[in-house]
Structures are given as structure tokens and as C-alpha cells.
Amino acid sequence: MMIDMVSLAIAMGAGLIVISILTSLISFRIGAPLLLVFLVVGLLAGEDGIGGIPFQDASAAYFIGSVALAVILFDSGYGTQWRSFRLAATPALTLASVGVLLTALVLAVPAKFLLGLNWSEALLLGAIVGSTDAAAVFFLLRVGNIGIQDRVRATLEIESGSNDPMAIFLVITLLEMSAMGSLQEGWLGTFGLALLQQFGLGLGIGVAVGYLLVAVLNRFVFDAGLYPVLVLSLVLLLFGVTSVLGGSGFLAVYVAGIIMGNVRFRGGLTIRRFQEGLTWLAQITMFLMLGLLATPSEFPGIALGAVLVGLLLIFIARPLAVWLCLIPFGFTRAETTFIAWVGLRGAVSILLAILPIMAQLENGQLLFNSAFIIVLVSLVVQGWTIRPMARKLDLIVPPHLGAVDKVELELPGHAQHELLVYRVTRGSPVAEGERIPRWARPSLTVREGKSMQNHEDGRFKVGDYVYIFTTPRYISLLDRLFAQPVTLTRKDRRYFGDLAVDPERPVLELANYYGVSLRSGEDELTVAQLIARRLGATVVRGDRVPLGSIELVVRESDEQGVATAVGLALEPSVASTFQLPIFQNWQDIANALMHWWSARHLKTRAPRESESTTQPDHAQEAIDPQRNETKSR
């Protein structure tokens, strides 16, 4: 009988995973957030759904969810490039720490009054839903293939991968304070020390183990199938040991993932492919399990209040926290709006909501149900509208490169070359007769199932498979040769400007030709230097610099964040004219204050009424260029 129950449980679990994967086909057709589909499948299979599966083991759910989250965070770090970290580390980590705290504080106010909680419980709910979900954000941005600006994408990805430790720390700390019944003397110092311990140990151990893993993998030779198993085991060991020592295990695995994802080591390609499938399994398992744990029959009593709290989180708490955190970093209003909108809550919030139940808090089940409804609201409202919002804010960057049909093959040992297999696609430069450079060495061509040597194949044909040895730094150049042609719409062409401008050209020449004014100290700069000064040390593709009646657009940038190709727009672009009345950065605020001060100063020096009838209103012309321009016409 026991064997039959185990077999039945295995069959039911595997069946739910199969159903979830099959329903993903429907979600892609209707545009539904895929992780929402997994969650709904779990609800339907639960005790209140058509499946009727009873599952109320909160401890087991938290254990399985923690393991799944550790796997997801390691993969998130593994896919984060150093360039992304350089672009957005400071704003992203500010959002991941201060942003989570601000969100929790702001959301506690409506949570107290709409859900009837006391202040400690309201703060606890704010902390539970304070972090964005790495699985949801990475899925929508990477798998959803939304081509947004690099700095915005990097900020969202790093924030979602690094803000879970802060939320977990806040939830555990608030639970401990609730257990004590009142604040003890010196609680602020204790809070600070615990925070330093969690993040210090998590960061330090994560970096050390990340490099240690790379050294071990390069030092010893294992069977190819053992590399992924070894890495997975060591990652989970890292998570457990760091947590036991009092550090953040989630931060440790995320940091170790970043280290390993940016260093070459034996078995790296095999591990990457293994991680892709394992991460999908972890996401599906976590969302299904949390859906099974929920009891929808308990939702009606708190549904209205929880939905309102969820909407306030989306439209007030998250935007306010994001704006306050990003003021110093020069993000545009549209970029800040999009970052605020992509604040999806997901499995992490539901997972943290299990902790009050495990701690036997009086309103633990109420907090869990409220968090579950808030997550549903977030996935429905935000998850369904990410692409339309990016399009409305004109943050979708035209594709840099067409699709490339490519397979990477790992070479044994410490080879400094890589073996790539390209399929020649119609319209690609290679198909049109472009030759492969000498630094790449085509070794084999497969045409219609027959293999040919390089000197036998002649001109490449559509459908050929070309095997090429090359060094890693040249791969991006080869991708250009084998990429499908990019079809740019009229709006895409307008996005990058009407004319091309040499980045090394003196900007004073443009200023004189188009009659625009420069700021003090900009007369001696080149176009690239002006863009860097206006936007910061690192610029990315799609960045824009308004310059009077024209606009400079970064078409390409190198690894160091220097503009290598620049366009010039003769008309104000949609991106520059679409201005929101909120989310001003420090530059906007400074300009507004200067404008207000100038207007006030000029007003105090305005001519007397007797003089105003005979003298032109020079002050008004100076502060109202549109009116001045109309007069000149």
C-alpha cells in the first residue's frame, strides 16, 4: 500500500509538470505570464480545485522552495555579465536594499487599515512582498525577448537577483521582534550588526567559493556528465553552510553564479545547458507547490482589501521607492517609470509568507493569503503589460543583430579556441557572398547531409552548416556574418537619428552649424566626450542627448561604455518629447529650480508699468523660447 501511495505521488507530480509545460503553449499564444500559468495550475490541482490534492505541509513547502530558489538565483548570477554589472551595479543594489525597505514601510500603512493588521504585522506583510521575483523578471526580460536599453535591463536583472536576501532578512527580523513582544534596548544596533553579518558573510563566502569552484573544475578532470552534478551539489552546499554560519545563503549562491558565469573553466558549456533545464524545473516546481499550498476558499473574506493593497503596491509604494532610490543616477522619467512597473512579485513573496505560519503567528494564515492575492494581482496587471509599457515609453531598442542559427561545441582541455557551428540563413552576408576573414578557420561544411572540406565547398549556400574554429573575442564578429538581415521599421530608423555623426568630431562644429548652445566647458569636447559628460562615464546603445533643436543618439558603444557610432536626429523624437509629470531625476529637479529662480529673479527686476508700454518684454522672451521662436517666424 505504501508503495502504491509513493507511486501515485510521483505520477501526480510528474503529471502536473507535464500539464504546466503543455499549457505554456497556450500562454505564449495569448500573451499570459507563463509563471502565472504555473501558479494557476497548482491552484486548480489543490484541495479547493478540480484536482482535490490535499497539501498543507508548510515546512516541506518552505524547504523545497528554498532549494528551488537557490538554484534559480545561481542561474540568475550565472547569466549576468560583468558589463551589465558595471552598467548598473550601484542603482540596482540601492533598489535591492534601500528600495525593499522603503517599499515595506510605505505599504505597511494601507496594509494596516485595509486588512485590519497591527503595525508589526503590517510591516511584516510589506517586507514579505517587498522584493521583486527573480524568476518572473528574468523570464519576462530574457525569455520574453524584450529588447530594452542595456542599462535598464541590467538594473532590473541585478535588482531582482539581489533583493531577496534583504527581504528575507527583514521578514526574519520582524518575526523575531514579534516573538519578543516589544523592542529591546539596543535593537537598532542589533539590527545593523545582523544586517552586516548576513550580507558580509554572504558576499565574502560567495566570492571565495565562486573562484574556488572554478579552480577545482580546471584542476581535476571528471566525466563530462559529472560536471553539472558536482556544481549543483557544491552550490547547494554553499547555500547551506553560509546559512548555518549566519550569512545569506541566497546572496552567496547569486554571487558565486556571477563569478563562475564570467570566467572560463572546463565543463562551462555543459553546465550552462544543464542549468537552463534545471532552472525551468525549479520554477515550475516552486510555483506548482505554492499553488497547491494555497486555500482559495479562504480568499473571499480578504480579497477586496488584499487586491487594493496589491494595486497600491503597483501604483504608489513601488514607484515611490524606485524614484527615491534612482534620483541620483540620472535615469530618465521613462526609464524610471519602466523600472517601477517591472516590479513583479512572485514565488519569493509567497515563500516568505510561509514563515509566519511556521512561526505560529496569530494572523499567519491571513498574511499568507494576502501575499498570495497580491502576487496574483502583480502577475496579472504587470506581467501582462510589460511589452506594451516598454513600447509606450519608447524604451524598446531596435534589434542590434538578426537571428543567428548557431551551436557552440566545447573543446577538451584548456583550448583557447572554440568550435562553432553556423547554419547559413537566407539574406545573411555569408549567403550573399561575403567571405569569412582569415582569422577564422572553417574546417568543415555539411551540405545536404554530405561533409566537404573547406577548399571543396566553394561559395556557401543557404542551409549549409559551417564548422569554424575561432577565439572567443571574435565570435560577435562572426555572428554578424551569419545573422539574418534586420528589417528596421520607419520608426526604428527614426529612433537612431536621420544622420550619422563621427563620435570624434568636435561638438562645437555641430553647435555652430545647427545654432545650438553648449554648456560651460563643452566647447573643446568631441561628440563622444560630450555624450559621456552628459550621461556619465558609461553609455549604452539607445542613449539620447538633447542638444537644443537636435538630438544625439548612441547607435553603438564598446565594452568600456564609450560611444563608437552616433546618430543625429533633426526632429524631437518620441522618446524625448514624451515627458511624464513625475519621476524627475536630479538633473530635472536642478533645472526646474534654476528655471524657478531665474523667473523669480527676473520678475523682481521687471520694468515698471509706465515703462512696459514702450519697452519690449525681453525677460519673457528669454524664459519662453517657444514664444520667441514664434515671433521670429
Automatic annotation (TrEMBL):
Domain Transporter-associated: 492-572
Stretches with biased composition (Basic and acidic residues): 618-633
Region annotation Disordered: where it falls in the sequence: 606-633
InterPro entries registered for this protein in UniProt: Cation/H_exchanger_TM, Na+/solute_symporter_sf, Transptr-assoc_dom
Membrane-spanning intervals of the chain: 6-28, 35-55, 61-80, 92-111, 123-144, 165-183, 195-217, 277-295, 301-326, 338-359, 365-386
Keyword Phosphoprotein: no
Gene Ontology MF, one: antiporter activity
GO terms, biological process: proton transmembrane transport
Gene3D superfamilies attached to this UniProt entry: 1.20.1530.20
Pfam families noted in UniProt: CorC_HlyC, Na_H_Exchanger
Keyword check for Repeat: no
UniProt xrefs under SMART domains: CorC_HlyC
Localization (cell): Cell membrane
Topology in the lipid bilayer: Multi-pass membrane protein
Highest taxon listed in the record's lineage: Bacteria
UniProt keywords, alphabetically: Antiport, Cell membrane, Ion transport, Membrane, Transmembrane, Transmembrane helix, Transport
Entry GO CC: plasma membrane
This protein's name: Potassium/proton antiporter
Organism: Orrella marina
